[in-house]
């Protein structure tokens, strides 16, 4: 019998351990996904601010800590988001190497962020890594919490709210515990590794994934049904249309909790940066107006069909006016909490209070203006960076207030110039919204 023709023989056997590029598909997985892209862009901003500060003013330890914390926490949220998306995909186990590549890529970018952070510490005048390790502990803790229960990703916003507080917490941690704080992320990393080895599809993950895209990961979708929250959201309609009653919930809750925080801090004689946190929350709320609008762009047609507007021009006009009403509420909340804080803190004078309110005002206005002009998810991600840019601006000025007893006059001139810029951009953005029709962005 003749042997089989060479053409019918397999030319070569595929090796079981053939090399496979673990970063294949990185662009599609991380950079084309709005959830992870938003956090990665913020992390990139943190790296840039860290490098700039080390080059220009390496003695600004507070700024470097804040920028490094921004990078670590943003990377943590991006990794947690990818894990949630992975567990929401029913086909993840059927696609060859998909799960493995996500885990390798997530571990790699996390390791790179840690490496860059340690390099920054070596190049700067930081004498302790306790603050960095506390940021790492918060970030890894958030990832582990989301692996256990995906619904906890709804609290991603709270992770960023601890950004200005964390450096202050180090002062209240005993020195002995601060020296061993590095063991916390090591333990959390071990727990995360164990959880990933038993990683499987989660029935709640898909709901969290879709809800997160539509609501901007705001907290409390059930609590937001309170009548008071709904009334405030109606007052802010149509800007509140894409977020829903959660907009009113965040505004009222932030006012109440901030007032309680100021009174509690005065009672225990502690210095908590409540004004700093409140300012960032207000700016974030304004930025999320257009973040959720872009995520739920198909819902714009439903909004347009409501019998409340006279055509597209009327819809755009009403949306612009509702943004101004939102800014008015933000200014009122900031002013009330600043006045309350001034009763217990002699450093908060009239000029300091005006600086805090002005910073929140121009950052909120710029977030709304840039958001209205956004035509892609990348544009909206860039507008979200105003939250952290204003955090740097406000934190550096308040550090100067604490160390020198006054704020440099340059900050006041900067506030004035940025307020003028905000007004100009708000007017320009007035007719940019839905420029190509409500069926698009």
From TrEMBL:
Stretches of the chain forming a coiled coil according to its record: none
Q: Does the keyword DNA damage apply?
A: no
**This protein's UniProt keywords:** Membrane, Transmembrane, Transmembrane helix
Q: Where are the transmembrane segments?
A: 34-55, 61-81, 102-121, 127-146, 176-192, 241-268, 274-291, 326-344, 350-371, 378-399, 411-428
User: Organism's domain of life?
Assistant: Bacteria
Report if keyword Nucleotide-binding is assigned.
no
This protein is called what?
Answer: ABC transporter permease
| Source species | Shewanella electrodiphila
